[in-house]
Design a protein that fits this description.
This protein is α/β, with parallel strands linked by helices. The protein is built from 18 helices and eleven strands. It folds into three domains: about 70 residues, no CATH class; about 170 residues, no CATH class; about 140 residues, Rossmann fold. Helix 7 links the parallel strand 1 and strand 2. GO terms for molecular function: glycosyltransferase activity.
């Protein structure tokens, strides 16, 4: 009580202390308001996985005000030192700045990712403009310079536009390959036999020599690296009466994993993702995920529009049969003067189109030589190289390796199919170097082919030789070859898409 009596014994002393108490209280209030203000001005600080209790929030606030592992300074709050007002104001400004900086790290990261996506879309917009301007030039030869090859001639829909597009792709295009999944189902493919092109592409993307980026925020597209061929080999039960559910469930589970682990699938609903399959079941396997089937870019050998292939977003992929996997000695044939057979085909009875062809022409005409089994002692490839036209009917599915076999043999391919989109159709003018025969015209094949003059045939055969470079697989890949043309087709589909991060 004595202390209280002395404290109030003088009005002057009381007034002095009252004023001092008022300013101290005001100073504390200003300090508290300054410290707490960022919590209201930056609501993004509270995010999933961060502490939300009042104690945790206070601990987190203090930890953000100071370097981690460093004890809070004794002068971080109120001080009795002379000139404390200036010190506290300066300290609070420093703390506020540091608090806001640290508190917005995740927001800054999100902004940076959004900025990267925006830069990608800006690059795509510039490429679209350049290609559009190039397409206005209708010359048969590209006006652009290139040390390796200048596209020219009627084999292209627009040589200048294609060349500009290809150069733009080489300059900016990047693809991210998801690393989830283990071989042999993922990141692995067969490099030989009828599905060789699927394995060649998968293995080349794994090597990362061209177009691959390991930063997903820099990617224009995202590759789902599963092999349908390997799924059939290791997952499919051959005694299950064609039950493809186990294959589809593997793909469904895989997309669920990458969509939970990465933001990119959900960001675009799959529009900037792609798969690649040369197996006949590629379209069926993709149908187990709606967004994969309807949105994603599907690179398919089985490019059948009656079975869901969408030329606006999907890519037709060449099917090549490489019995040993060797990539040398694939091309070459006799000159037109030494091609004594008008038309040639040899193949098993697969599907109704081949049935009609064999029923109509098998062992019927020496000019149109059609075999179900090639006679013993006769070379299949010698027949290809000796024929003016090579018949390429669809089998059970629309795609056939005979199209590329004909091109390699410098034999003009005759496409006999329904609802088939041939490879690289968005760039190549197939009518300039091939003959397309409707199924109902199979009985008239000889009449159609003999109606092509020698001069016209010579032009078509020269164009077949010119277009070879776009179908040949190389190790390592060479500009404008099968691998690069496939990537270019994917690039063209990506150019049609505009992704916005919400």
């Amino acid at each position: 009580m004595r202390t209280s009596t002395n404290y109030f014994s003088s009005s002057t002393s009381w007034s002095f202390h009252f004023v001092a108490l008022f300013f101290v209280t005001l100073l504390v209030l200003v300090s508290c308001r300054s410290l707490l203000a960022p919590n209201f001005s930056t609501p993004h600080v509270c995010r999933r996985g961060q502490p939300t209790s009042s104690l945790d929030t206070e601990k987190r606030r203090v930890s953000m005000l100071h370097n981690e592992g460093e004890a809070p300074s004794q002068t971080a709050f109120a001080s009795d030192n002379h000139g404390s007002r200036e010190f506290i104001n300066e300290s609070n400004e420093k703390r506020d700045t540091e608090f806001m900086h640290r508190g917005t790290d995740k927001e800054n990261l999100k902004i940076q990712k959004h900025s990267k996506l925006r830069r990608i879309e800006e690059k795509l917009a510039k490429a679209r403009y350049s290609i559009r301007e190039a397409s206005k030039i209708r010359n048969l030869t590209s006006t652009l310079q290139d040390p390796d090859y200048v596209p020219h001639g009627p084999i292209y829909r627009n040589a200048n536009a294609f060349h500009r597009s290809y150069l733009e792709m080489e300059k900016v295009f990047k693809a991210f390959v998801y690393e989830e999944g283990e071989p042999p189902l993922f990141h692995n493919g067969l490099n030989k036999d009828i599905y060789a092109t699927e394995g060649i592409f998968i293995n080349e993307m794994e090597k990362g020599r061209y177009y691959r980026t390991y930063d997903p925020d820099e990617a224009f597209v995202y590759y789902l690296p599963f092999s349908v061929v390997m799924l059939v080999e290791y997952v499919y039960d051959r005694g299950s009466n064609y039950n493809r559910d186990p294959l589809g469930l593997v793909v469904k589970d895989y997309i669920q994993i990458i969509s939970h682990k990465h933001p990119f699938w959900n960001r675009s609903l799959g529009h900037d993702h792609f798969i690649l399959s040369c197996h006949d079941w590629g379209p069926i396997v993709s149908s187990y995920v709606d967004f994969l089937y309807n949105n994603a870019i599907r690179v398919l050998c089985n490019a059948n529009t009656s079975e869901g292939f969408k030329p606006a977003k999907d890519v037709s992929f060449p099917e090549i049969k490489l019995m040993t996997g060797e990539l040398t000695g694939l091309v070459g044939g006799y000159p037109p003067s030494q091609r004594t057979i008008l038309a040639f085909f040899a193949g098993h009875l697969h599907g109704y189109i081949r049935y009609l062809l064999l029923h109509t022409w098998k062992n019927k005409d020496q000019d149109v030589q059609v075999y179900e089994e090639i006679p013993e002692g006769i070379s299949y490839y010698a027949k290809l190289r000796s024929s003016r036209f090579c018949l390429c009917p669809s089998g059970y599915e629309v795609a056939s390796p005979r199209i590329v076999e004909a091109i390699f043999a410098e034999c003009v391919p005759v496409l006999i199919s329904e609802n088939y989109v041939p490879p690289f159709d968005d760039v190549l003018n197939w009518k300039s170097f091939s003959v397309q025969v409707a199924v109902k015209e199979i009985p008239n094949i000889k009449k159609i082919l003999t109606g092509i003059s020698d001069r016209q045939y010579s032009r078509m055969q020269r164009r077949v030789k010119q277009v070879q470079r776009h179908f040949v697989p190389n190790e390592p890949p060479q500009r404008y070859d099968m691998f690069h043309m496939t990537v270019h087709s994917i690039w063209l589909k990506r150019l049609k898409i505009h992704i916005q991060d919400q």
